[in-house]
Amino acid sequence: MAPPTIVPTLVKLASALGPSAARAVRNVGPLIAANPEAVRQGRELLERALAARAGNTKEERLRRTVAALREQAVRAETGASSPQEQERASGWVRSADSLQSALGLVQLRSGSARRGDLARLQRRTDDLFAEIFTAAVQDDDAGAGTGTGTGTGTGTG
Question: Which DSSP state fits 151?
Fold first, then answer.
């Protein structure tokens, strides 16, 4: 079971970010319970994601979320301790850049086409969040258990 101090944050995240986040929270729950560093890393990422979701419009919330995910991906890329970790993090940066570009194009649309595009981008953003979050917590757990992990949330998880 996850430590009591992070449980409210995990519940807020799962409800705010939707099915992909709920899946990520379920996947990493046992890892978080066993590793205090994973708790710290997970809480930091969750708080940034939740803060990003505080925008006034759906587009603003998506922009802020994607920016936070890109920032985390760049950090992971910079702190990578192997070529595989760096390549994975580079893929996250490319995904975030793609999402940012697509958000710019959505502004050219209107009505139901715009809403549909935003819904698709929201799903992609949720999936990217779930991937980064799961990897960050798994990598922290691997580092705590063996002494070989980076502790930065950037391993090969």
Answer: S
